[in-house]
Design a protein that fits this description.
Layout (H helix, E strand, L loop, with lengths): L17 H26 L11 H4 L2 H10 L6 E5 L5 E5 L2 E4 L6 E12 L5 E12 L4 E12 L4 E10 L4 E4 L3 E5 L2 E5 L1 E5 L9 E5 L3 E4 L16
Antiparallel strand pairs: 1-2, 2-4, 3-4, 4-5, 5-6, 6-7, 7-8, 7-9, 8-11, 9-10, 10-13, 11-12
């Protein structure tokens, strides 16, 4: 009786496809950017050591002017636990209401760290910014970086965001790098509608360049390239 042929060895697993990595990247952008913007902007203006008093909601214009004169918003710090069990820390060097319009806050050295319950750490940092509490909008400026412990890094010089987390826009060149992937674009717009991040979308325009290398563990997260 003839011996049956040996079974062929199983083929090696295929390397991750570029579109799979890109899909994961898009999902991260849709969730991380609006969340980081909402987290930072809605919790920054608190008295040091008093996480129960929200300055932007509790004080009127005269009180804010008095705070400006007394410089009570130097080095504001906020720590909290998110609804899903994550740990949040927000700091700034200064948060100063403008004398002519105390609804406008000039902030410097922004930093936020979010340690999610699933173990992923997301940080956001910027040299400065302006928050408009009346319009419920904020702008980060100066080497803005969003970084995750999973290896994703976003860099831009300007990031505009709504305080409700519904919108995050970079009107200037942006660079995003991650495991085996690098994207440069002239602008970026991330939208999260009322029904939540999974239904949102992110759009890149202006000289979009997407480079994928499955053998590369990471990429250089240098400054964004100028748009064409």
């Amino acid at each position: 009786m003839a011996r049956p042929p040996d079974s062929a060895p199983a083929p090696p697993p295929a390397p991750p496809r570029a579109d799979n990595r890109y899909s994961r990247f898009v999902a991260w952008v849709k969730v991380a950017l609006p969340l980081a913007a909402l987290t930072l902007l809605s919790t920054l203006f608190l008295f040091p050591g008093d996480s129960g008093r929200d300055v932007t909601e509790a004080l009127d214009a005269d009180e804010l002017r008095a705070m400006l004169q007394k410089r009570l918003l130097r080095a504001p710090t906020y720590t909290s636990v998110t609804d899903d069990g994550g740990a949040l820390t927000v700091t700034a060097e200064t948060a100063t209401p403008r004398a002519a319009d105390p609804d406008l806050f000039d902030v410097t050295d922004l930093a936020v760290a979010l340690d999610a319950a699933d173990g992923v750490r997301t940080t956001l940092a910027a040299a400065g910014g302006l928050v408009d509490r009346r319009a419920q909008e904020g702008t980060f400026t100066g080497d803005v970086r969003v970084v995750t412990s999973e290896g994703w890094v976003l860099r831009t010089e300007r990031l505009e965001a709504a305080l409700d987390g519904s919108r995050a826009v970079s009107p200037v060149p942006v660079r995003i790098v991650g495991p085996g992937l690098r994207l440069d674009a002239g602008t970026m717009r991330a939208i999260t509608p009322e029904d939540g991040p999974p239904a949102g979308h992110v759009t890149f325009t202006g000289g979009v360049r997407l480079v994928y290398d499955p053998t590369e563990a990471g990429a250089d997260a240098g400054p964004p390239a100028a748009a064409d």
